[in-house]
Amino acid sequence: MPRLFLSMGAALAAAAMAGLTACSEKQQGPVVVSVIGTPQQLAQPLRDVLSPASKLILESTAQGLVAFDAQGDVLPALAQRWIVQDDGRSYIFRLRRIRWPNGAPIKADDVAFLLKNRIAANLALDITGDLAAIEDVTAMTGEVLEIRLSTPRPYLLQMLAQPQMAITRRDGGTGPYRKEKRPEAWFLRPIVEDDGSEDTPIPPWENRVVRAERASMAIVRFRAGLAALVLGGRYSDLPLLKLADLDNRVVRIDPAQGLFGLAVVASDPFLNDDGVRSAINMAIDRDQLPAAFALGGWAATDRLLTQQLDLPRAPIPPAWADATIDDRRAAARNAIAQWSSANGAVPVLRIALPKGSGSKLLYTLIAADLSRIGVPSRQVDLNADADLRLVDEVAAYDSALWYLGRVGCARKVHCDPVSQERLQEAGLATTTADMQARLAEAEQLTVAHNGYIALGAPVRWSLVARRLTGFAPSARARHPLNQLFRTTN
């Protein structure tokens, strides 16, 4: 920790030596944004579409038919309006008048072709969700296209608003900004609508300067006044905020919904034992997490789903949910002792977490809980061979299908095969009642299997200068750069 503190202090001094712009200039000039990530993620976002930096540059320069607003609600983007027909199986979109970077007008057949490519790519990567229900995307006229579904999907617009559904091609995307490479950053200029009016000068404050860098440097830049916004913060970098001694008013925590927990990703005699997986799940004390990370309001949980969503009933809790932590640990110790008596020494569990001081803290807490029941462990890199691997994702859309799919057999998580069958049946269901019944069965089996160890809601934080009056907490953890001020831009 002392080394980190000294390096941050040295960086602050270096930033100050570089010189700060005057307050009036910062108020009038482009908004400087630091996103936690790498320059390559900004330069080639489609290669790492789930990173904060890639998502930010995609939603800024290559919007989809719809997008998320500052609160996380769906709003028009490339499509100016739409209608839903045929009991939810047909979505018809009318496009805005906008041009490609080369000046050619964007037509519905262009968008249909590119959207089908994005759907295929996301299905292959299994990252966007239940896109298999989309049967076809066709241009009806030059400015109108239709998306046909095999079964109704009430959350289709949320799926289409994901940054990885961006409409883009080699020479650029559909806005709302055009990007230009600058040394160590990207300059973003708003696209002016093709409304036939004469060009008007763009006020400097409507432009954006975006760079990707590690969390420590982004925090330093913000504290020094060289950036007005830091995006992409996760739990792994939370301890850095305390070291930086920032005003609490500039730290914004998103009310993000999704998954934050450990997935069982190994299949061996130890983890194949139902009693062992249950013991590991019940041994962890979630209540210690918010205090350990000094994050008030963090929703720690032992539930896979914390909301009913499209289930026909409330989510099912683990069988041991009402027991005290002492009783849970006693039962867990007994289960591990029984396995050891029958099989020999308990193996060392490899727990895969991302880099960062927050991960070290999280591992320390989990390792202590596991040690109390007789299970040794060690931390490994997130992508290394592991027994337990962190799942840290914001929900793409509001359905139990998303949650169950993210911790199911298709994602190589230790699972109940019958639950996977029920989940697939839910995806193919042609009626709401049938889908809900299959989802309920899949959720019950998944919870009982203990292949996913829920810890809490995903943590997403930002640093926001007070002048950015349009910034708002978002359940989607998305913060459009063209909505940073309450005035329209």
Characterization of this structure:
With 489 residues, the chain is α+β, with helices and mostly antiparallel strands. It has 3 domains: 1-62 and 175-256 and 459-489, Periplasmic binding protein-like II (D-Maltodextrin-Binding Protein, domain 2, 3-Layer(aba) Sandwich); 64-169, Dipeptide-binding Protein, domain 1, CATH 3.90.76.10; 258-456, Dipeptide-binding Protein, Domain 3 (Dipeptide-binding Protein, domain 3, Roll), CATH 3.10.105.10. Helix content is 33%, strand content 20%. The protein is built from 15 helices and 20 strands. It has helices spanning 2-18, 23-28, 39-43, 52-61, 108-125, 156-160, 215-223, 238-244, 274-283, 289-292, 325-343, 357-372, 400-406, 417-428, 432-449, and strands at 31-36, 66-68, 74-76, 79-85, 90-95, 134-139, 144-149, 168-169, 172-173, 177-182, 185-190, 208-213, 229-233, 251-253, 258-264, 349-353, 377-381, 388-394, 452-456, 461-464. The chain has a 7-stranded mixed β-sheet, sandwiched between helices. The two termini are 42 Å apart. Residues 1-26 have low confidence and may be disordered.
**What name is given to the CATH topology of the largest domain?**
Dipeptide-binding Protein, domain 3
CATH class of the largest domain: Alpha Beta
Distance between the amino and carboxyl termini = 42 Å
- What is the β-strand count? 20
- Low-confidence residue ranges: 1-26
The CATH superfamily of the largest domain bears the name Dipeptide-binding Protein, Domain 3
Radius of gyration: 24 Å
Give the DSSP E fraction (strand runs of 2 or more residues): 15-25%
**Percentage of helical residues?**
25-40%
Class inferred from helices and paired strands: alpha+beta
> Shape, please?
globular
**How many helices in DSSP terms?**
15
Q: Averaged pLDDT, please?
A: 90
Largest sheet: 7 strands, mixed
Q: Structurally, how many domains make up the residues? A: 3
Assign the CATH architecture of the largest domain: Roll
The largest beta-sheet arranges its strands as 10-11-12-1-13-20-14
